[in-house]
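Our platform keeps sequence and structure together, in a single record for each protein. Because each token names a local backbone shape, the row as a whole describes the fold. One such record is reproduced below, unchanged from the form in which we store it:
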Amino acid sequence: MESESHDRIKSLLGMLFEMATGNLSFRMEPDGKSDELDELASLLNGLAGQLRRAALLDGLPFPRLEIKSEVKFTLILENDFRIRGFTTNLPHILEYDAELLPARRFEDILQIGCLPDRLAQTAAQDINFHQSLDLAFKGGSGFVFPSRCTLSRLIFSDRMVVSAVSVGLHYPKEFSPLHHLRDQDDAERSQRLYDYILNHLEEPLPTTKELSKLFGTNEFKLKDGFRHFFKTSIYHLYHEERLKKAHRLLLETDMPIKEIAFTSGFNDYNNFYKAFKKRFGYAPRNVLRRP
């Protein structure tokens, strides 16, 4: 029972993630248990529907947002974990006097206990040291700045580089909320087509004639409306999203490359290889896979 509840909570969190990244068409199937978790699922479904309708009332479809990492600031540490240097934005973000930071212990600007024991010793002994961990920086005025960080040993040196990384949501570069608006029917149809493409990347894309019948319009209006909102053609978005999905699977999973190609809608590996290399500038096998 406990495991089942955890699975249902995990599904609820997954729903929140889908909504946060702009997937307002995602819905959860109620379990029929009529309990608090089922009620939350219904509330989230209702909220997603309201957000989707609100966006479309303005005549503007809502794209899936892209998750991007950004380095907020970087420090250089000596082998004893004293601060040697830092990027110019660190004093502003953490509210420290830049002149007082050099030679201070790294632990002095962290919350007590968040730096693992013996980390400095481990890093000093391993010339290939690299680790990701969550740290909580202590701001000059007492606030806490939590961040995912990478710690890496510099090559041919005993110094360390610490980078604080944040993750943000961004509109796809081909989409802008400032586009000229059209009527709600155009926006609704383009949104439905956009969602259809992203939900069927592993399948061959129907012809525009078949898509126009599916969405109740003619080919010209379907293609023109889609290009107006997303600044690209239907097929180009389908092709681009398949390659992005493949790249994400290469980074985040240990699936065999040929299986990733198939899962991303490419039935011919050679076609996948050529398209991937043309899009990213390197072959699929050159992507650094997780261990």
The chain has a mean pLDDT of 86. The chain has ten helices and five strands. The chain has three domains: 1-57, 67-169, 237-286.
